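Recall that a protein's primary structure is simply its ordered list of amino acids. Everything else, from secondary elements to tertiary packing, is in principle encoded there. The following example makes that idea concrete.
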Amino acid sequence: MLQTRILKPANDAYQYPLLIKRLLLSGSRYEKTREIVYRDRVRLSYRELGERIARLANVLTEAGVKAGDTVAVMDWDSHRYLECMFAIPMIGAVVHTINVRLSPEQILYTMNHAEDRLVLVNSDFVGLYQSIAGQLTTVEKTLLITDGPDRSAELPNLVGEYEQLLAAASPHYDFPDFDEHSVATTFYTTGTTGNPKGVYFTHRQLVLHTLAETSVLGGLDSVRLLGSDDVYMPITPMFHVHAWGIPYVATLMGIKQVYPGRYEPEMLLRLWREERVTFSHCVPTILQMLLSCPLGQGQDFGGWKIIIGGSALNRSLYQAALARGIQLTAAYGMSETCPLISCAHLNEELLAGSEDERVSYRIKAGVPVPLVEAAIVDEQGRFLPANGESQGELVLRAPWLSMGYYGEAQKSDELWAGGWLHTGDVATLDSMGFIDIRDRIKDVIKTGGEWLSSLDLEDLISRHPAVREVAVVGVPDPQWGERPFALLVLHEAQALDARKLKEHLKPFVEQGHINKWAIPSQIALVTEIPKTSVGKLDKKRIRVDIGQWQASNSAFLSTL
């Protein structure tokens, strides 16, 4: 072992633990009167936010919540959710952000598996909660969150109603110091098979992630996204990887924050306009929804900066948004990575290049952010060169990656095989450090002994003017193993069949972007493409649907 020099600190030297409470101090220090806005209903100053977090801590402590207990939240994106993301871990408990879009059976599994003790339930989810309450094994108490009619009589073991309890609680709480390696948050990520898996993050991990994210969003001039005078509105659910960690960043910086509650296109755009929102983040499907909704059509969104993650950002969506005044920036991460791993950055070399080249790099997964190590490995775990061509699985190291899956030793070992976190994504690395995600390993189309990227095909197909949305998957083929199948949503009053799509893709074959076997021989025209609970393309369900359509010779299908 390397022999290093270690000095003993003075006896009275304060051993400063990296705790979430440290993040809360700065915002009120910078901007005490800046607002936290919830829809068109609530406006708080940072001073009031701090007091409400202390009040909530007192309410939870009075309800018997202790350090190490897990407290679950079922709510829409709100100021109350932000308060929970601070108050619960700041008293030493663990906040479980429940994915309310999972099935009742999956929600039940996650709550029992996480060993939730107390649950905060928005009145919109009382019916859902009632349907599983009898099967919960560890929950002892509930706390009602409501904007409308009182539904407290419908919740078992009720502590009380959120606002009433806060109003009666003290605005002061002496938040203690404790080990920075204590777990602060947990949530569940769904895969293609089996039950959802619980990831968890410590105070130290969340503080380091917040500091790194702050430096990237505000410090890289080529993609300057979030400064102290911006107005922030998340369009990624707070139950999904802490809304990508950005509420912690915004609070640290004292930025005006706007929380939209349930995602309704008209409300989102109203808030954008009235609160003068300048920065958001979302998945591609949400942005497409905003651009195409009645209030968004023809709207100039000049000055709105949006990070796109969760799914690949294709050139067609980038250009459509830019034409409406929106500057998109791609970023990459996953539930297991807290989530930020990389963000698009244009260095001096790229800035001096053509506009086409700059766009190509703006829509890639980006360059690893500070403190992140990235590498590419083959199926035997051997490292591949960063030459922009060698494809392999992306593996990672960073101080904020989940150390495993809660209660799942074997899956945790697989996640961290060889001392690197395995993402399950096929990617390349180039000499500038850019990560280019080519596909999920399970979504790569294996045809005629070659690998085809479904993401590449989706990007090229999306450039057809008739196509509003596209998903490509591999389907079994007796001769080639698999062939690509395209699911398409078209713009209104547009038409497209498999033969016309082939004509659109031919030039890309001639230019060497794809080979001729990449052209789908079958397509399906649909009004909606299945999505997961966090807005990603649900390719598992798409494959099932296609199999059923093929078996029934559905009229939706178009074949070459």
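The CA atoms of residues 466 and 492 lie 8 Å apart. The chain has three domains: 20-202, 203-371, 444-559.
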